[in-house]
Records
---
Amino acid sequence: MSALGPASPIRVVIADDHPVVRDGLSVLLGLLSDVVVVGKAADGEAAVEVVLRTRPDVVLMDLRMPRLSGVGAIRRIAAEHPEIGIVVLTTYADDEEAQAAYEAGALGYLTKDAEHNQIHQALIRAAAGHPQQERPPVRLAAEHAVPVRASLTPREADVLRLIAAGRSNREIMDALHVSEATVKTHINRIFAKTRVRDRAQAVRYAYLNGLAPSD
């Protein structure tokens, strides 16, 4: 994520196909001293274009939009710019949609009846690269009673294997030749997608899903 300081507001893009919602959210976020809206989009394709042009810290993303769904837009943004936090803000709470959004790369999931402070806190956490603390319920795999295997990117799978091998963040940085911020971003996305809370649960998930080191 971007290095945010006291003088650096969280830069947000709003993606929603309803003009009233876009404008309302823009006004709402404009009242926050630590948030600035840098772009708005009316569909998934436009969301990707606006994000690539403005490089925000966080995207507030609706799921049901024309041209390209919110999940599709999340997947493309997360693939090209994993450092950008994405928070879903949608009309209905749906377990399958929430699962798909997290697997695509979202860090948070809220419904549009969320309170002002809930949205604010979700933006703050996403800007820092942290998953939302309270998440929708997750379907469990009957055999192992762990979350259904998530759709990790190849790099996220590499990071998870290294975590399962007992490597520290510094060792993962050296092994993959990436920055500490990138490692933390990958780990946070792994935690969000797999619904684990810590490294110990991540290790267990890796072993149960065949992602642990072969040796």
---
Amino acid sequence: MYRLASLCLVLTACATTSVNEKAGPRGLRADQHLSAASREEERAGQLARWPDTRPGADGTTIDQQRAAGTWFGTWDTAAEHRRLAQIHRSAAAALHAEYEQACDDTAPEIASISPLQRYGISGTPTSDGVLVLLSTGAGPPDRLLAAMRCHRAWMMLDRTDMDDCPLDLPGIQVSAHGDADGIELTISVSDRALVPELQRRAAHDLEVRRHDGAAAHGH
């Protein structure tokens, strides 16, 4: 039976660094993923610099001297933090790719404005969402839906003030049809608990449209 004079087992913490970001309804934005990736890389660098490998007076490392005559172990999680950093970078790249695909050559100043704020006229609550009437300038319907997809993709790039945008809610379904008088846009949400929030946000966008329209006409 072996008798050990002392036993020293040193483990680095295996927990991942916290994201420290407030995610939006559809998750972290691209810039938040990149910030999290930077923190994971920084943590990996800190772990890579431990244990202390500076040479001591007798040529052995500082940690070898500390561990002489003892059990000494480490649990290096630097690789795990680098893996998490790569996951965040990949997620950010995917969001940017989605934006490029959805918006194509649409200018950012156009993509940043919701079509509901640009063309909205009035709205009516429905059992699972809202029905919005838009001016003919929003059409044809295919172009309107493309503009909405672009705006929705744009919102995922940065932490913008989109707490009142109905298009930033998860699980929405949108359909549009129009004629010479205007376009009817139906927005519903799969989560019934989000229906009041969808209706509130749609009403907010229409109010912004009315306010901007009144200001443009000097009222």
